[in-house]
Amino acid sequence: MEIRKNNSGPVSVFTMVANEWHREKDWPLPRTEWTKLYLAGDGSANRRDGGGRLALAPAADSAPDHYAYDPARMPDIELDFDDLSGAQATRDGSQDPDREDVLDFTSPPLAHALELTGPFSAVLAVTTDAVDTDFVVGLVKLAPDGTTLDLRGGIQRLRYRSGYAREDRAEPGELSTLTIDLWATGIRLDQGDRLRVEVSSNGFPGTARNLNTGEPDATATRMVVANQTVYHDAARPSYVVLPVIPRAGTGSLEFAPEAR
Q1: For residue range 12-69, what is the model confidence (pLDDT) as tens digits?
Q2: Whole-structure pTM value
Q3: CB-based burial of residue 214 (10 Å sphere; 0-12 exposed, 13-18 middle, 19+ buried)?
Q4: What is the C-alpha to C-alpha distance for residues 204 and 79, in angstroms, rounded to an integer?
Q5: What are phi and psi of 231, to 5 degrees?
Q6: CA distance 161 to 164
Q7: Which of 240, 147, 226 shows the shortest CA–CA distance to 194?
Q8: What is the residue-wise DSSP string for 67-116?
Q9: Burial of 113 (0-12, 13-18, 19+ CB in 10 A)
Q10: Cα separation of 49 and 23, whole Å?
Q11: CA torsion 26→29→34→37, rounded to 10°?
């Protein structure tokens, strides 16, 4: 493992995959290229091999996607929160079930190596027919061999769409623009890697499931199915914001032309 250090600056940053420590002057890094990656597609993102895609500009004719979130239907994935080996954090999720209640948006291959270091966020334009519900965004690296690695993720409860100081419930069918904190990381991606954004409403078991009724979490027992819509056209864009860091051997976010 090669480790290089620059001894100037009060901030220590480790870049995974590159296995490098860097000393920086501030956080987020002042030279960050905040890059928006837009959700797009033909409305068939319910399948991993569907029409959900990621682009550097919003698409005017991008059809919205729909899914039904049933809190009684939990993902069949075993998680060990006591695992300290790193195996849980680095597991390959490519063989996990392809669920219709998870929208998948996949980018073309990267044209060159890319470093992402800093806080990530997502903006979703959504509607629901439920009294309350959750929206979850995950960012995934997809390697050329098909293996995947979860990079970052976050969740937003709709009733707190205006902040956690008060409840701000949306009317069924009302358009909400949600900003979701995906937390921070530092990682180098290689040429040919792809990015995938997953949108769902189920953060369980990492977070308590929303039963969609608006009742107090501690006492609620009744469940309802929430029918969700995610918009991603030019008038109602949905996107993730990536902290791109140019260094030697990496550059801005660019995609290679895909073979036809």
Answers
A1: 999 999 999 999 999 999 999 999 999 999 999 999 999 999 999 999 889 999 999 9
A2: 0.93
A3: middle
A4: 10
A5: -95, 150
A6: 8
A7: 147
A8: EEE-TT--------TT--SSTTTT---TTS---TTSEEEEPPPBSS-EEE
A9: middle
A10: 41
A11: -130
